[in-house]
Amino acid sequence: MELTEEVKELLIKTANELKGSARRLFMARTVRALGEGGQRRAKEELGWNRATIRKGEHELKSGRVCVDAFKLRGRKRSEEHLPNLLKDLITIVDGQSQADPQFRSTRLYTRLTAAEVRRQLITTFHYTDAELPTAVTITTKLNALGYSLRKVAKTQPQKKLPETDIIFEHLKQVNEEADAQDSTLRLSMDAKATVKVGPFARGGKSRVLTKAADHDFEAKATVTPVGIFLPASDEFFLYGVASKVTSDCLVDRLVQWWESVKERFSHIKTLVINVDNGPENHSRRTQFMQRLLEFVQQYQIAVRLAYYPPYHSKYNPVERCWGILEQHWNGSLLDSVDAVIQFAKTMTWKGNHPMVELVTTTYQTGVKLTKEAMQGVETHLQRWPSLEKWFVDIMYSLPVGRDN
User: Fold this and answer.
1) From CA 377, how far away is CA 271, in angstroms rounded?
2) Where in 21-122 does DSSP place strands (E)?
3) SS3 for 98?
């Protein structure tokens, strides 16, 4: 039987498109059709492997098909023989990751290199160098988990205090201790940029014809989302504030949230609050500290403030929720306060909708304590040495004359 070039090309292409026993049987039948010396001709003219042909002839003769264990071939994924690897990767990277400052992406960007992550896996979780995958593989796995090993460049150079790295080290320690203690609950709190209510374009895309005003004239109203996020349980509470966001406003939202969950968290003795160093809530803001002290005394629960350093507020976990919200409502018109609230209610974080409430209380700006009054508040505060602005404990103490 003569094999023309066209026939050879057809046989080779057909064999390549088949897999497993179907491929071997096709090769065996072809060799039979070639007659005497078929195996030799198939090897020389078609490039087929003789061992594969013989296996196909055995299957053809016996009628028994050999099952191919394709899943058992190749190198196994690292997480198959290191079952805790992905969880440990998240533990290392998550606290050192920030949201996109412009909310253009929901990915997280970390300060750590893949080599540093690998080193911490060895020193912190006691993996051996031999059993761990390479830094390139770790990069791939982190990308699949939603983390990118690069910084996000802003339009202006990032500023960095000399204490920035030390603050991050203490933050990591404080957060890990809080998450490990049953009597401590960690929450992340922050206000998003104020949303203008009106027929304004938001830069998103939509499959529905949406027409926005060609200029952003004066807004009908404004809504400032204030969020409280619980990293341990991925719960998100969102409050749409129609007034200015002040120190009183932020603490009122803390009170409002605690009133809604305190029965569920009756065992909690300490709240660790991750916040940025904003003008309404920094640790030298007298009205903010006074209101927090009142909160501690009213609910008999300790509060530990753990601040992110300046220009690094996007590392605060609640910022990730803002990224999701921005992606969720971009491309739509937020032309009423109700539209803002309804869009917030329909967003999802880790598959769950947030608890959303509208706040219409009007807050007065510029409220502050006298120096003498603030000195009295300071007697109830414990500031960490050398990091006084960034870590503050407000402890509850029984009034004099009362027993424990």
Assistant:
1) 19
2) 97-99, 108-110
3) strand
| Paired tokens of 41 | 């001709």
pLDDT in tens, 272-331: 999 998 899 999 999 999 999 999 999 999 999 999 998 888 889 999 898 888 888 876
Predicted local confidence at residue 404, as pLDDT: 42
Domain count, the chain: 3
**Does 102 have pLDDT greater than 90?**
no
> Measured between alpha carbons, how far is 166 from 143 in angstroms, rounded to an integer?
27
For residue 212, tell me if it sits in a domain: no
Say how far apart CA 130 and CA 121 lie, in whole Å.
12
| CB neighbour list of residue 366: distance below 8 Å, 6 or more residues apart | none
Tokens of 390: 């960034």
Q: Is residue 403 part of a domain?
A: no
User: Residues 357-392, buried b or exposed e (16+ Cβ, 10 A)?
Assistant: bebeeebeeeeebeeeebeebeebbeeeeebebbbb
In which domain, by residue range, is 120 found? 75-156
Domain boundary among 48, 71, 94: 71
The 3-state DSSP class for residue 191 equals strand
| The model's pTM | 0.67
Q: Which carries the bigger pLDDT value, residue 328 or residue 365?
A: 365
